[in-house]
Specification:
With about 90 residues, this protein is an all-alpha fold. The chain is built from three helices and no strands.
Length: about 90
């Protein structure tokens, strides 16, 4: 593992911790929705970085599945926030 990837990995883990804190301590539902979206995006980037470090494509498959689930969950939560009902 090179120095650049190690620094990037540490940076992403730190940002993920800050995003989880924002998700946990969000004052409004909109803050928490943004926190969920940010955590999903950071986990995607972390999985792609792990795929580069480990040279294993399974992490890319996981990132693709997480991207699809993250998109759908963000849409569902935003609809719930707007209409106060899920379906």
């Amino acid at each position: 593992m090179s120095e650049v990837t190690a620094i990037a990995l540490i940076l992403y883990v730190g940002l993920l911790a800050a995003a989880v804190w924002r998700l946990w301590r969000g004052k409004t539902v909109a803050d928490r929705l943004i926190g969920v979206d940010l955590v999903t995006t950071l986990l995607l980037s972390l999985l792609i970085l792990l795929s580069i470090i480990q040279r294993d494509s399974i992490y890319l498959d996981l990132a693709l599945a997480l991207a699809a689930l993250g998109f759908i969950s963000t849409l569902a939560l935003a609809k719930y926030l707007a209409d106060e009902q899920m379906f």
